[in-house]
Amino acid sequence: MTQINDLSERKKANSLESSYVVKAPAGSGKTTMLVSRLIRALANVNEPEEVLAITFTRKAAEEMRKRVLALLSSKDSAKSIDPELPEIVNKIRMKDLEKGWNLNSDPARLSIMTIDSFCSGLLKRASSFSESLYYPTVEEDYKSLYTLAARRALSEISSEEHKAFLGRVLSKYDSDWSRVERHLAEMLEQRDTFFMEVGVGLDLNQMGQRFSDLLTSRLLSCDKLFSPSQKQDILTLYNFSETHLNPKNPKLMRIFPEAESASLEKWHQIFERLIFTKTNALRKNLNASNGFPSGLSETKPMKKLWRETINEIADSPSAIQTLMQIVALPKSDNIHNELSDLKDIFELVKLASAHLHLIFSQRQATDFTQQTLDALSALGGLEEPSDLTLRLDYTLKHILVDEFQDTSPVQLELLRKLVSGWVQGDGRSLFLVGDPMQSIYRFRKADMDLFNQLFQLGRIESVPLERLTLVNNFRSQRSLVDSINQLFPPALEAVGSSAEFFVPQNTVRIEDYGRPLTFHNISPDDRLAEANYIAELIISIHGEESVLKSEERSTICILGRSRRHLEEIAQTLKKRKIEFTSVELSSLADIPVIQDLMIVSRILLHPADKVAWLAFLRAPWAGLTLEVLSKLSTVPVLRDFLLHSDAVVRLTREDSERMAWIQDILHKSYQALKTHSLLDSLKMTWNAIGGGSLYRDANSREATRQFFRLIHELEKEDGLITYQKISRLLEKSYPDNHQNVQGSLNIMTIHKAKGLEFDIVIIPSTHRTVKSEPQSLLYWEDFHVDSSSRGPIVAPYQNNTLTSLYSYLRSLELQKIREEVVRLLYVALTRARKKVHLLGKLYDSEEDLEKRQFAKPPKGSFLEFIYEKIPQELIQYSSKDSLVEPHDNRGVCLKRMEFPQVNIDTDPFGGSAMRNKISLDALEFEWAGITARQIGIVAHYIFQSLDDLIKHHSTREIIDRSLKYARARFRSMGVSVGNMNLALQRTETGLNNILSGERGQWLFNTSHCLVQRELELFPGGGFGDKKIIIDRTFVDAVGIRWIVDYKTGYHDGSDVDGFIESETLRHKPQLDYYASVLSLEEHREIRLGLYFPLLDRWKEWPYDQRSSLN
User: Which of 651, 743, 812 is nearest to 327 (CA)?
Assistant: First the structure.
């Protein structure tokens, strides 16, 4: 181990005589330092409750408590952390005995908790000072209450008191009620920050003056970027341009614009003409449309002057960022209407907040936001602290706050009140630890600027904070730390963020594990190809370490920006039998056993729900055929029919027995509901139908236990339990995971990996983005222009967001989101001890790599900020010459449990068998020749990949890539040389028709939702075991479900219409059958279509359920 360069800083951190704010980068031993200080603090107090440690998550709190208790129980472990600790630990043990702390038996006396737990405890203590009791419980499904409060507020449009301003707000949203409701509900979630930073009062004149001051300040910053000679050059260029754009009446600039609000329009004219494009990109050239005609001799030297000027600006990302802020600024006289709209929005937020308070009161509930606000209120003001604050001031001696970079404004205010009565040298201390580079929770209102401001100020209230910066890394190998040191300063500069947030580190570890970073180029850009590549990479790593003992093998973690980036990988690993542990990748609602339990819950809670009954009777325990379900779907109230009708005698003998069995269970279930809880009734029904026998694996059993615990908790709340409420909670709940052991493969989002470390980290989809372009009811920003002009500027929603104050403030929020992307990448890279593998599309060919011709990554992707700084020797070319064949994409799976078999001698309903019960052999190619079948097979695989290809490539690129694949595939299928050109020609014809034809472009339009390709269905039941495959299905913009089959047949004759009609008659029963299966899954209009890409023809028809059952 090498020398620890920041040893003096770490020794200072142990001193309880001073308060500190510590900048602690990833891997710097932050938790060990916190535990060491906490141990020292415990040794210097009379009661353990006098030391408060606040962590960001419950998991972190529990981990810290375990480490403290482990140190107190072992001298050796304490010595390994700090040679002074064993003596301190002995002192705590003596106190534990003498004062009866009993920490081992009562570890809750260690006040290590989240900020939410602390606020809850504060309020319970506050209730002891008053006559009231603090009884509300935190509502788990709080977002539904926000929506309810928003809906109630908007419904008051019918009242005389509120209809005027509500009408004005709705008109701003073009009467889009649902969008206003959604934005208002989102505002309620951040109402704590809003009320603290903005308040409930509104001084429009003051806000207008504040904006004017801001505008002037921004222009001054911009003005300083240009030297006098540059200003003169810009004037020369602008006037040259103006002379040629408006030769009859040129409006020339005599002097460079002043740094004042009245000159903003002139600044905009210069920027739009010379520096930025309409899309706010830096200009790369000038032409006649900019006033620089190519035919004039003066144009060439002018363009040269322009390039010299622009190059000086382009070399400084921070300068570009400063100029961009001016481009986005609206004129002062344009914001008055916006500010006047604020009054209406303020009234709406206050009205919705009042409704939310009423809902909380009615339900005896609260949320974390209200809990924090109530805790703040309970502490009183800074000048007039409450009795609770005075009591805490007497009790608390030492406060430690972890992950301080993720603190919100309200939480900081809470901390300020806690230390408001402290005086330097009174024996109390504050210890704040954080890393601005790991601030990745802006969506939870975390504000990194609070940490940076406090670090620069070096004080909170009257408590001075000594600044410490840790520079040693105990986690990662040297070459990995060096690579991170090289990558991030330019990445921060590229995004317009200050590089001072980043702390270059020195490594302490001496091990060398080889190349620390490897960039794997994935081409073509395909999620499945990437997933298979990752599977091969993991197999390779496991193979290299197969000779090692299990405890010596590397822990691996696949980290994604979102669950979407990981879904395909998880499916591929499952298919390839590669075991892994996922952390909150899929919710409980996605687990099959939970979906079946929800079917049972739904019929018990909503007995008139026909959809629920059909699902119940379709499920394996009943296993009724589609014929039976289709007939039952015409019954008005299925429950009454099932419980009281004698119609079951019309079924086959087996189905009659099944129905009689189900009927008996249902009678008992509904009787049980009258005398038992929902939980007990659910358990009895589930056991009676044999649900447990369907799911015998450990994960399903654990998920079942979690489901029943959730129902139990809901019943304890003593409120109305609905199917919708259970569904919302299941979407937010995740399977308990007890398998995350050392040496395993893990998959999780980067946010979930915070605080964890692994030997090897794999980061997929570095070239992809995550959609994050929010729109809000309000945007506000707290500006500190100078000591006399500070405070928030607020703007309400505007329809025209191009030149508004709302647009400007929104652009600032989007910029902060972009800066957080760089920090998110930092968190991902710093989870690794040994190596990091990054996957993404950098280029298309090895020739591009040699020329350093990287494909420009999408804006907002990880690669955007680092691709130009990647050393060539770290890039591994991994292009695949052929598309990867897709893995199973199983959709509906209709099965039935084992039941005594009975010979069926009669039709189930006394009529003919279902007309659509047809053989589902490959109709597509049964009349075709060998080459036609081969064309069809290859074309289907290509069509399946088109969605992703269309997003990222031109038509020519798609055709070239596809034909390259097709040629290789045809060759492997044995297509003769004589037929090869024909096969390729027809494949190209089909692709051209899809990519250029109106019908093909519609079929692959990105606006469609619920798109599935090659969807496999396993009907089961009375239809045999054969699977069916739907080529393409989606829901269009008006909500119609489309089921499309590609027909790659070719017709050389003259009667093409006759050929199409013949094919339609032949394939219509097949598609109608597909629709009959999907119609049981969802209730929406269905239309069916046959697409003939080689002929560019289309045939469609509506699905008629009644005719399909005749």
Answer: 812
Q: What distance lies between CA 509 and its chain's CA centroid?
A: 34
Per-residue pLDDT tens digits for 299-335: 999 999 998 888 877 777 778 878 887 887 887 666 7
Q: Which value, to the nearest 10 degrees, does the dihedral of the CA atoms of residues 1078, 1080, 1085, 1086 take?
A: 20
Torsion of CA 1019, 1024, 1029, 1034, to 10 degrees: -20
Cα separation of 1006 and 1011, whole Å?
Answer: 9
Residues 6+ apart with CB under 8 A from 415: 399, 401, 407, 460
The DSSP code sequence of 957-1001 is HHHHHHHHHHHHHHHHTT--HHHHHHHHHHHHHHHHHHHHSHHHH
How far is residue 253's CA from residue 285's CA, in Å, rounded to a whole number? 22
Query: Dmax of the chain from CA atoms?
Result: 103
Of 175-189, 778-792, 834-848, 956-970, the least confident: 778-792
DSSP bridge partners of 718: none
Give the separation between CA 961 and CA 949, rounded to whole angstroms: 9
Residue 852 has which token pair?
């350093």
**pLDDT of the residue at 37:** 95
- Cis geometry, peptide bond prior to residue 247 (ω within 30 degrees of 0): no
Tokens 């010595």 correspond to: 79
Is residue 169 within 8 A of residue 345, CB to CB? The reply is: yes
Q: How far is 351 from 358, CA to CA, in rounded Å? A: 11
Euclidean distance between CA atoms 117 and 65, whole angstroms: 15
Among the ranges given (454-458, 569-573, 758-762, 970-974), the one the predictor scored with the smallest mean pLDDT? 970-974
Mean pLDDT of the chain: 81
Beta bridge partners of 1032: 1013, 1044
Tokens of 211: 């904006």
Q: Tokens 């600006």 sit at which residue?
A: 313
Q: Measured in whole angstroms, how far is the alpha carbon of residue 319 from the centre of its chain?
A: 31
3 state DSSP class of 888: coil
Map tokens 């056991």 to a residue: 687
Check if the beta carbon of residue 968 is closer than 8 Å to that of residue 884.
no
**Alpha-carbon radius of gyration of the chain:** 34
Q: Tokens 């009708």 map to which residue?
A: 645
Q: Quick one: angle between helices 115-127 and 387-395, nearest 10?
A: 120
**For 442-451, 513-522, 647-656, 865-874, which range has the lowest pLDDT when averaged over its residues?**
647-656
Find the helix or strand (DSSP H, E) in which 823 lies. Answer: helix 805-829
Is the pLDDT confidence value at 362 over 70? yes
Give the pLDDT confidence of 92-104 residue by residue, as tens digits. Answer: 999 988 888 888 8
Query: Which stretches does DSSP call E strand in 805-897?
Result: 832-840, 875-877, 890-893
Strands (E), 412-535: 429-434, 459-460, 463-464, 466-469, 472-473, 506-507, 517-521
Q: pLDDT tens digit string along 379-436?
A: 887 667 777 777 776 688 999 999 999 988 888 999 998 998 888 888 899 999 999 9
> Taking residues 981-1002, what's their average pLDDT?
89
Kindly state the percentage of the chain with pLDDT values over 90: 27
Q: pLDDT per residue over 223-249, tens digit each?
A: 988 889 999 999 999 999 999 999 999
* Cross-strand partners of 21: 432, 467
Please give the single-letter amino acid code of residue 455. F
Q: Are 282 and 276 in contact (CB under 8 A)?
A: yes
The residue among 524, 509, 638, 470 whose CA lies nearest residue 34 is: 470
Q: What is the pTM of this model?
A: 0.72
CB 778 within 8 A of CB 850: no
